[in-house]
Structures are given as C-alpha cells and as structure tokens.
Design a protein that fits this description.
Elements: E1 2-4, E2 8-10, H1 14-24, H2 30-48, E3 54-60, E4 65-71, E5 75-81, H3 85-94, E6 99-100, E7 102-107, E8 114-120, E9 129-133, E10 136-137, H4 141-152, E11 157-161, E12 164-165, H5 167-176, E13 181-184, E14 186-187, E15 190-191, E16 197-198, H6 204-209
Parallel strand pairs: 2-13, 5-6, 5-7, 5-9, 9-11, 10-12, 11-13, 12-14
Antiparallel strand pairs: 1-2, 3-4, 7-8, 15-16
Helix pairs in contact: 1-2, 2-3
Length: 212
C-alpha cells in the first residue's frame, strides 16, 4: 500500500492489478465483472481494517481459557446507490459483523447539485467506523456530498473506499474533508470533458447490473 495525494491510499497488490484489468476490459460481462469487484472489495476491506482498534477478551478453547480480541467499534458500511451495492458483499465477507445502510444521491437538473433521495443507516453511526462505498471517485462532488450528509447525521469516523479514482476527485475530497482517508484500487489519469474517468472502466453500476 502506498500513499499519494495526502489522503489517498493506493492498494498496490498484484491480484488487484489483475482484477482492475478485468474490470477495465469492455469484453467483461456482468457475471465476471461482479466477481472481480467482489475480490477487490475483499482486499480493500482487509487493508482498511488494519487501522481498526481491538480490545482484549477471553475465549474458552476445547482445552483451556486464553486471550482473544474483538473489534473496539462497530462498523457500518454505507454504499452509495446503486453502484456501491456491488462492493457490500465483499466487505461483509471480511467483516461479517458489520452493519449496512444506504444512501442515494441524484443531481438536481437545475442546480446541478447532489440531492439525497434515500437514506437509511443504523442509529449508532456516531460511535461507529463508517465506510462509504462507491466504485468511482470522479469529480468528487457526489462523494463529498455523501460524506457531508453522513457527518450531518452524526458520523465522526469516516473512511471512503473506491475502485478507481481521478486526481481531481481525490483533490476535491482532500479540500472538503481532509481527515477522511480514501482507499482505492487504481489512480487514473484524468477526467474527460464530461466528467468520466480516463482510462476508467465505464459506468460501474451499469456494468455490475447489466443495464448497459
């Protein structure tokens, strides 16, 4: 894992590089796309959880009592609808006791600002580690709005996980939320004039759910 752009942590792993290549390939169908997305989410979950605090406990083995450990804080996963849904199962496989919420944002056609249309999370997000899941960090506008929305609801310990980020999106989140760590599988070159990441992998939601 290497750090770039201040708060962006690139997961530099051979298996992630292989799976990002699968995701980029326009010939990859939804079934293979979902499987690669799941595997990348597994690795992201492992890397993000390195920073989790643990507390000691005791456990009875078949032979004796010994020392064990448990997570100090609850974990809440919040996928951004709908593309973020494809990352949830991979995270839950690694953190099975995590809870999950959802947040939906859409762009207002007049103001061009993100507007929340759905929100549901467990009540205790203030005392939890909240991991916001969104495959693509492009302009950063929607991601920044989602983070701010979660903060307004009480979240204090936030992490952002994505597949592919643009330098512009990372800079936007750093400007708006410098304390939020961003974990990603790839840092791409730039945005085009329509706000799509280059080289990117297309629309992650459409490719996950086969709605191209």
């Amino acid at each position: 894992m290497e750090t770039t752009n201040g708060n962006f942590f690139l997961i530099d792993h051979p298996l992630i590089k292989r799976d990002v290549t699968i995701l980029r390939d326009l010939r990859t169908g939804p079934e293979i796309f979902r499987a690669a997305l799941h595997r990348i989410s597994n690795i992201l979950a492992v890397e993000i959880s390195r920073d989790f605090n643990i507390t000691e406990t005791t456990v009875e083995t078949p032979l004796e009592r010994t020392r064990g450990y448990k997570l100090e804080q609850e974990v809440v996963l919040v996928p951004v609808l709908r593309a973020g849904l494809g990352m949830v199962s991979g995270f839950l496989e690694i953190i099975p006791d995590a809870k999950a919420g959802h947040i939906g944002l859409q762009r207002d056609e007049l103001t061009l600002l993100p507007v929340e249309y759905y929100y549901k999370t467990p009540r205790n997000i203030a005392g939890s580690i909240v991991i916001l899941l969104d495959p693509m960090l492009a302009t950063g506008g929607s991601s920044s709005a989602a983070i701010q929305y979660l903060k307004d609801k009480g979240a204090k310990n936030l992490v952002f996980a994505c597949l592919v980020a643009s330098p512009e999106g990372v800079q936007r989140l750093f400007n708006d939320h410098p304390e939020v760590k961003i974990y990603g599988a790839a840092m791409d070159r730039e945005l085009n004039n329509k706000g799509y990441i280059l080289p990117g992998l297309g629309d992650a939601g459409d490719r996950t759910f086969g709605t191209l």
